[in-house]
Structures are given as structure tokens and as C-alpha cells.
């Protein structure tokens, strides 16, 4: 395993982390006796495999249902100083409730402290306010730190880059969990801001949210050769020294194997990546046209500025991925989450397009004339049953 300094925490963080949201039994709390023996055995085998290969950062959240409770049966069996344990608690209007929720997490994990406590989901102005206002959740986290129950404080986010940068610039957080990978590089400005503040940078779900790369389309497989899409994406992310660790949401012990192939390639990333990156860009241009590829995002309105809160940027992004790389199943999954994702995946899909006048909000886009037709095509291609966030299933 390779390790990187996790910003000002000074922790030696493995470049891969063991995320805790794919191996648990349920997304809701259940009594301990309801957890099947085989499910618990698989989770414990996954954790043992992670630690065996040097992935000693185990990451979970109160919002991950039975994950914490199940981890509480295995984590205390390891020497505590060998582990880096992170859990995450959603910011709440009542900071006292935030503390009570954290105390429940600590009981679930059967630990005396966590190394990393993340404020889970600083996604918009409201959750940022709950966090950083006087007497808010950040103050409670700092009290827990003073009591020795938390070593370092960070936040996770699915929010806009502007919101993330605003939270980073408070200089009150030691690390950030955010989205950034080949198919979605919008948050680079936030990573640059984190570097300026010497924060740890943890990439959320690069294999699943980064394109459902456990089951990649054949077109993407060919474009990424000789690497698998998963290894390509890992290498792309880790070739940037500003990135410290990638979350691997392992569902079983074998899920680490493909990722491990990345480690021996890191020193050669500058030779391996350019031809693959060139092929991916060339295919996007061949499929979508150079002018579109280079300018499609120019002067697009935010979903808040758009009638019906239509999330035009996300919808066009998914269109691009489906057309250029055959990431149709991924695009369907994300598209049908629109309207159901609350502040975790905000805005709406294009199901009411004929009721909306987009002329004014698109007036500064170089593609104002064609975007409404593309939005209609996207809806015809991708619309299916609404998708719920995992924690709501």
C-alpha cells in the first residue's frame, strides 16, 4: 500500500480507503439480532482483507444504516492505533441533537474515539449555516475534540463548488470528502482551495458515482485499454498529488483486487495516462462535435436560476456521457434521481419541458437554440422509474 500525508492532520493515509456503504445489511437501523450471519461474516472478511493489504482507513456514517453497528463487532478486535476510523453526522438545526447522534455512532462502533469526524452533507447554504454558525454543529464537534472523542474534523459534500469553497475558506476544517474523478472534474477549484488550507482530500465513490465502473460499458473498456476503466480512473485521480485517498466502497473482500493494480503504475502515470486521455477526448469530439465539447457548459444557468429548477448542466453532462462513452445505465441512474435527491442531488429532470420557457435563462449560452431539443432527447432516452437515494430505499 502507498500512503500520503493527509493534510494538516499529519495522518499517513492509504491512497485507498475502505468506504462503508456497500457491505452493510440495511440502510435503516435494525436490531442486532436481525443482521444475518453471512452478511456480518462478509463484512468482517472485507475489513480483514482491507487491513491485510494496508487499507487501515475505515470510513462510515450514521446515515449508512447498520454499517456502524456491524463495524462495531470487528473494529475493536484490531489494535486501535493501527486504524484510522471516520464516521459522519449530518449537520442539524439542533446542535444538541448532533451531539446525541454522534454519541450513538460511538456506541455503535464500540470505540472510545474516532480519528475523523465529518459533518455529513454540507451541500447548500442551510447545512453550511447549521454547521458554522455560533453554537452550531462545528462547535459541538470541537467540544468532542476537546473531550478526546474526535481527533480531526472535516466535512463531506455533494454541493456546488462555490458552497464547498466557502466551507473550506472558513479554515475550520481539517479535511474534505468530495466528488472529483475523470467524468466529473467540476470540483477542482475546491481541491485547490483545500490544498491552500493544507486540508486532507478524500474522493467520494470514484468507482460508482464515477461511472458505475464495476460494470463498465464495452466502449469505455476499449477506450481505456490497456487499463480497465476502474484502474484508469484511480490512476487519473491519484496522479494529482493534491488528492490523498480514494474511497473504495467494497461489497466483498475481492472488490479491492482490481484497484490494487493501480499502485505499481503510479510512478509511470505521466507516460500511461496521456494516450488514454487523448482517446477519450477524441471520442467525445467525434461523437458530439468539437464546438459542443469545448463550449457546452458556457454560461449555463444554475438550477436555481432555471424555470422549474431544471438542472440543465447535469442533464447535458449525462447526455454527453451516454453518447460519447455509452454510459447509458449510469446516466439513467443519475437522471432519474433528479427530483428525488433533495440537496444531495438537486434540481429536476426534463419531464415538464413543454411547460417551461427557457429562452431567458439560456440567452447567454452559445447553444441556446439546440439545448431545449437535447433536453427533450435526453428525457426520451433516460427517463424511467424515479430513483431514490440509497439511504431512502
UniProtKB/TrEMBL annotation:
Record-given protein name: Aldo/keto reductase
Organism: Komarekiella delphini-convector SJRDD-AB1
Gene Ontology MF terms: oxidoreductase activity
Annotated TM spans: none
InterPro entries in the record: AKR, AKR2_Oxidoreductase, NAD(P)_OxRdtase_dom_sf, NADP_OxRdtase_dom
Top-level lineage group: Bacteria
CDD domains the UniProt entry points to: AKR_Fe-S_oxidoreductase
Signal peptide, first to last residue: none
Amino acid at each position: 500500500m502507498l500512503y500520503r500525508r493527509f493534510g494538516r492532520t499529519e495522518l499517513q493515509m492509504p491512497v485507498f480507503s475502505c468506504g462503508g456503504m456497500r457491505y452493510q445489511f440495511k440502510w435503516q437501523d435494525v436490531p442486532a439480532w436481525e443482521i444475518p450471519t453471512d452478511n456480518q461474516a462478509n463484512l468482517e472478511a472485507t475489513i480483514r482483507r482491507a487491513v491485510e493489504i494496508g487499507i487501515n482507513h475505515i470510513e462510515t456514517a450514521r446515515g449508512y444504516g447498520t454499517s456502524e453497528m456491524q463495524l462495531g463487532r470487528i473494529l475493536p478486535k484490531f489494535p486501535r492505533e493501527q486504524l484510522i476510523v471516520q464516521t459522519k453526522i449530518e449537520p442539524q438545526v439542533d446542535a444538541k441533537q448532533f451531539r446525541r447522534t454522534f454519541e450513538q455512532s460511538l456506541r455503535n462502533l464500540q470505540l472510545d474515539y474516532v480519528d475523523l469526524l465529518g459533518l455529513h452533507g454540507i451541500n447548500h447554504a442551510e447545512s453550511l449555516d447549521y454547521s458554522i454558525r455560533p453554537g452550531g454543529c462545528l462547535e459541538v464537534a470541537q467540544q468532542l475534540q476537546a473531550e478526546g472523542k474526535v481527533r480531526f474534523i472535516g466535512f463531506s459534500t455533494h454541493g456546488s463548488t462555490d458552497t464547498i469553497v466557502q466551507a473550506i475558506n472558513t479554515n475550520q476544517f481539517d479535511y474534505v470528502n468530495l466528488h472529483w474523478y475523470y467524468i466529473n472534474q467540476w470540483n477542482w477549484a475546491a481541491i485547490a482551495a483545500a490544498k491552500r488550507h493544507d486540508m486532507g482530500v478524500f474522493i467520494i465513490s470514484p468507482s460508482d458515482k464515477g461511472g458505475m465502473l464495476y460494470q463498465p460499458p464495452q466502449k469505455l473498456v476499449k477506450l481505456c485499454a490497456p487499463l480497465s476503466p476502474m484502474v484508469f480512473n484511480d490512476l487519473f485521480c491519484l496522479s494529482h498529488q493534491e488528492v490523498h485517498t480514494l474511497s473504495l466502497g467494497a461489497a466483498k473482500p475481492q472488490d479491492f483486487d482490481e484497484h490494487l493494480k493501480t499502485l505499481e503504475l503510479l510512478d509511470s502515470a505521466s507516460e500511461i495516462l496521456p494516450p488514454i486521455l487523448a482517446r477519450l477526448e477524441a471520442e467525445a469530439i467525434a461523437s458530439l462535435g468539437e464546438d459542443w465539447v469545448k463550449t457546452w457548459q458556457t454560461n449555463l444557468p444554475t438550477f436555481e436560476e432555471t424555470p422549474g429548477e431544471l438542472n440543465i448542466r447535469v442533464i447535458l453532462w449525462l447526455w454527453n456521457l451516454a453518447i460519447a462513452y455509452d454510459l447509458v445505465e449510469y446516466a439513467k441512474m443519475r437522471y432519474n434521481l433528479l427530483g428525488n435527491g433533495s440537496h444531495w442531488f438537486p434540481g429536476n429532470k426534463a419531464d415538464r419541458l413543454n411547460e417551461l420557457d427557457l429562452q431567458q435563462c439560456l440567452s447567454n449560452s452559445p447553444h441556446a437554440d439546440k439545448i431545449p431539443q437535447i433536453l427533450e432527447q435526453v428525457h426520451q432516452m433516460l427517463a424511467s422509474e424515479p430513483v431514490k437515494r440509497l439511504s431512502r430505499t
